[in-house]
Specification:
homodimer, about 200 residues, alpha+beta, Pnp Oxidase, Chain A, oxidoreductase activity, acting on the CH-NH group of donors, NAD or NADP as acceptor (chains A, B), Flavin reductase (chains A, B), Split_barrel_FMN-bd (chains A, B), Flavin_Rdtase-like_dom (chains A, B), FMN (chains A, B)
Chain lengths: ~200, ~200
C-alpha cells in the first residue's frame, strides 16, 4: 500500500493534486443550483458538495469556492434569499457538466447549456424543467471557512417536486430509479446499482 | 409531478420525513471515521456527510449531529486533534452499517463490528485495516450550525494510503475500482458504474 505523506502531497503538481483530493473522499451528489438576480438574469451551476444538515425541519448545505472571483450563484442567493437544487440525471450529464464553464453574467447557463427554466408556485428562482427531482430552498446562514475561504451555505427546504413513483413506503426517495447520477471528483459521472438496504442499527 | 410544500413537510411522520430528506439530496459517500481517546479507547462510526473543502492544501469536512447526546467521535477528535477517514467497500457494508448503533463508550465498534485497528507512521488514531483507501486528518476548525445544532468539522489531510493501481494518470483515484460504495440516505448502499468522464468545461 502506497503511503502519501504531507511532503508528497505538497510536491504534487497542482492539477494532479486537485484530481487526487477531489476523488479520494468518496462519491458525491450531482446537483444543479438555479438562481436569479434582481434583473431576472438567471444562473445555473453544477455542485458536487450538497450535504444533508437535518430533516426536521429539512436543511441542506453546500460548499462554495472562495468569492475572490465573481460567484453568480452566491450573489444571487444573497440577493433574493432563495435558490433551487435540481438532480442531475443520466440523460443530461454532459449539459449539466457544461454549466461549470465560466460564462459571463449576461449569459445564462440555462440557455447556453440547453436547460429550460421552470417557475413554480410563485417561487422566485427557476427550477430545471428536465430534472425529475427538484427542491426550492430559502437561504438560512453561511459559514466562511477559515482555512481556505470557501463558504458553507445552508438553506431550508420549502418545496419538493418529484413523481410519486419515486417515493417508497418508508418515505425514502429511490433516486436510482429517478436516474439521478453520482459524481467522483469533478469530471467522472456514475450510475448506481443497489446493494443491501439495512435497518436502524442496534448494538 | 407531486408538489410537497412546507405544510406537507411539517405534517410528515417523523421517520418518514427523516427518510425522505436524507435521500432527496443525492448520493453520498460512505466513510468510517476512526478515533481514540486518551485512555486508548477507540471508536469507529460511519458517516455519509464527508465533503470536499479544498485540494491545495487538502481539507475535508463532515457534519456531526448535535452534541446533546454523547458523541464519541467528536469528543475524541477534540481530545487528540486527529482522526482517520476510511472508505467503506462492498464486502463489508453490513459491518460498516453496524457501527451506527449506539454502543457504550467502553465498547469499541472496531471490536464489536469486526474491524481491525491499524496504527501507521506514529499517527495517534487507528485506521481501518480492511479499507482499501484511508486518510489521516488533523482537526482544523469547527462551525456550529445555528439552525439545528449540528457541527461542521474540518480537517487537513496529513496522510493517504491506497494501492497505486487505483491512481489514474491525471491523479484521479478510481474509487469504483477500489470497490468503494455510495449511500442513499442512511440505509441504502450502492455500487457504481462509470458513465462519461468529461474535461474542464469552457464556454
Amino acid at each position: 500500500m502506497l503511503h502519501i505523506d504531507k511532503k508528497a502531497i505538497d510536491e504534487m503538481e497542482s492539477r494532479y493534486r486537485g484530481n487526487f483530493f477531489n476523488t479520494i473522499s468518496g462519491f458525491k451528489s450531482a446537483n444543479l443550483i438555479g438562481t436569479i438576480d434582481k434583473n431576472k438574469q438567471t444562473n445555473l451551476a453544477i455542485f458536487n458538495s450538497v450535504v444533508h444538515i437535518g430533516a426536521n425541519p429539512p436543511y441542506l448545505g453546500f460548499i462554495l469556492r472562495p468569492t475572490t472571483v465573481e460567484r453568480h450563484t452566491y450573489s444571487n442567493i444573497k440577493g433574493t434569499g432563495f435558490y433551487t437544487i435540481n438532480h442531475v440525471q443520466e440523460d443530461f450529464i454532459e449539459k449539466a457538466h457544461q454549466t461549470s464553464a465560466k460564462y459571463e453574467k449576461a449569459e445564462s447557463e440555462f440557455h447556453r447549456c440547453g436547460f429550460q427554466e421552470e417557475y413554480l408556485h410563485s417561487f422566485i428562482p427557476p427550477y430545471v424543467k428536465q430534472s425529475n427531482i427538484k427542491l426550492g430552498l430559502k437561504f438560512e446562514e453561511e459559514h466562511p471557512i477559515k482555512v481556505n475561504g470557501t463558504i458553507l451555505v445552508i438553506g431550508s427546504i420549502q418545496h419538493a417536486y418529484l413523481d410519486e413513483k419515486y417515493i417508497q413506503n418508508d418515505g425514502s426517495v429511490d433516486i436510482s430509479l429517478a436516474q439521478t447520477v453520482a459524481v467522483s471528483g469533478l469530471y467522472q459521472y456514475l450510475k448506481t446499482e443497489k446493494l443491501d438496504k439495512f435497518k436502524y442499527a442496534k448494538p
